[in-house]
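the two lines:
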Amino acid sequence: MAEVEETLKRIQTHEGVIGTIVVNAEGIPIRTTLDNSTTVQYAGLLHQLTMKARSTVRDIDPQNDLTFLRIRSKKHEIMVAPDKEYMLIVIQNPSE
Amino acid sequence: MSIPTAKLKKPTLKVTPSSRAMNISTSGILRLNRSATYARSINASVSRKSFCLAADSKILEKSSVQTPKHTIQVLDENGKDVTPRPVYQPDPAAVQSKHSKIFASDTSGGTMSDFYSTTYQTTTNASFAGAFTRSLFGSGSVSIGSQSIMESMSEEIEDPSSKRDNSISLSDVQVKREEVKELIQEEMLDDMVDLYLVESDTLCLLDMPAISVSVDSMEAESVKERNSRYTELCKNRTGNDKYMGRSMQTFNGASKTKEVQSEAITMADAATIANNWDMYDSFCSAGQGEVDLSTDTDKASIAEMIHQNHGPTRTMERTMSVISSSTIVSSSSSRMEMEPFVVPSESKPDPELILQSEEFQQHLFVMERIILENIYQPKLAAYRQLPTLEDPDSMPKAVPMVVSRREESSLDEEGPPTPALERLWSFSCELTTGRNVSSMAWNKRNPDLLAVGYGQFAFKDQKPGLVCCWSLKNPSWPERIFTCQSGVTALDFSASSASMLAVGMHDGTIATYNVQSREKTPVIDSSDCVHKHTSPVWQVRWINHERALSGEDKGEALISVSADGRISKWFLRKGLDCIDLMKLKRTRNDRFKRQVGEKERKSEALISRQAPGLCFDFHPTDSNIYLAGTEEGHIHKCSCSYNEQFLETYQAHKGPLYRITWSPFCSDVFLSCSSDWTIQLWRQDLFTPVLGFMSTQRAVYDVMWSPKWATVFGAVNEGRMEIWDLGASILDPTIVNPASPGVKLTSLLFATETDCVLVGDSDGQVSVYQLKNFTAGEGTQVGTLEDIIGSTLASQL
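prediction for all of em together
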């Protein structure tokens, strides 16, 4: 447990990381460093996108599965690690 | 006797209704009566020829339909009332109506043919009636013929027997009745009673009338006559007015429409999209036999889940898929099983559980790596000699700087640009700040894994040591952290089992760690060993012995050198144990003494006979030979076969030797560096160094040959890091990189495969530098080195 907390803290303090969100399967945030409305917005939108991405991956090959999703935009990069029970979202500004 | 004759004799009985005086019609017309069944049956039983007779002997003609049964009386010739008493008295009204119905069609007057038809009808009816009249008793005696009829016509065999019984019982009843009457007049008992014995009628039990008659018999004529009459009749039938054709038509039952209305069936539409993977999941989960809830779709609600299971079955019906029908059945059954399982999945897993789960840790780990990759991507790419990707959205300010620098550099030299070191990144974290990097080692199997040992060199301010395993993919936090009880002074990864790390410590302990596991404790420790080192272990090395030595198994052995003057070989027996390969004895400086020619000095008081060993290196090809450097400044060439004596001794250094390394390319050339500010290049057959290098007046802590070029080596002294290229210059280092002020550089490590150098310093940082614009030439430059050595030697002579 302590290791998890440490790692989470380290991630949050890395260079360029804007926010870290952990939501459960229903979209309720477990851990977040952003405000609630932003968290809920991110969680909801990314949940749908993750499901679509996963569906795409598995349609091509049902034995395959989605492990990670990265969306790079002009301003930042959103990284999503999906799971069946939770979702880990990190928003980073890679170039500073 | 002929039956008909018997019948002729019959007409003794007269049946008279008691209640109403009705005429008994003995004519051929049959009146409807209950007991007329018997009469008819008798008539029917009688053969054709005796038809008329039968008609005469229709004793059983009953007068009317409506006469109640108990009013009928049968009287025999004596006038006795032998009316059979009914044993069972049913409801008269009900019975009557039944009978009237049955025999309704029988009323027909008329001709013989009609009679015939009626008789046949009646016989059939009689058989029916027999069923009804079983409970009723008609005249008992008349039942003779009826019995026969019954037997021949009806299917119920019981009837005749019952009738027989009836007749018998009836007579019994009759007798009883009479007895009752008699009893009343008791006085009459004394009277003389006249009993007349009369021959009773012959009971015909079975009458099977013959159908055909012999020509010689009496009735032959009458039969023939009848036959002829009948044929004539048949001929006359057609077209004759007397004969009427009758047709029958069965009535069609009146149809009646009946309407039924049921409740409206509520329909619910359910739709889903069945994906490829949805079908695959259902197939897999059905095949497993248990509900696999870990389908990869997020279950937002129960309905969604059920729909998902509805969907596949529907699509399966539609599409020609590989899934067999048994799967459909099993998936539907699994759907049924799914219902009870739905509920637990609804309960949200505890957030704490999520955070503690293994998958979450794994995801965090991956996420961190990816974040760091974003940050360090250019540096890592440079390390791996990949082209650096320019971020298209990066700030444009960086670009002109690079351009200008390039312009400047290109303007400066006409020739090739100067070789330089570019600092890529450094491995450091808050744990390691302030610690002195004492040793570094690459993992033999995973070239991205680096083990760094932290420990103080000096005796004072010793603190618990630290070993960190860094991965190239995460320069900000080590993968493994091992705390040791004393400062770490030596490290080496094993080659055979790539996850074993040997650690030598300042208090002489040697421990091995398994870096694959997450345990913080060493696999094995030498602190319990009897022969453990008593002084700091300055170097450990895993050496692969090709030849078995002194009965030991071939394989890898851990060799260590420590300040107590022993070079020991460690192995696992009942714990970690060691044998001494060599004891480094102090050697007196005989040569110098002789040269100087002084008289013998007084032998110095020796603290110990052993000379502290500081470093050693095994020959790259011959694992039997190794060099050992001592604090005295001597280099001893030893062999594993002799553990008493050195093969050779090289004396040149005036201070403790910190490092000896064989050249990886030239097998008899080695380098040594010591605290006397010099680096010496030796050839193993010469007792004086071939070349000596000195650049600053600082102790040289570490030296290492480049794995790529034979002429290149790197050295680190207190204040700076130097790269020497002997092909370029043997007097000055080619690249010099000064250390940050206040920080001493302590160790150096070349990275294989890439042009990078790692430098550890006393602040706990391991910096990664890339050699830029540096090349010693094509190939390994072995020839160049040998040329240099050769020319140097030649010049010395």
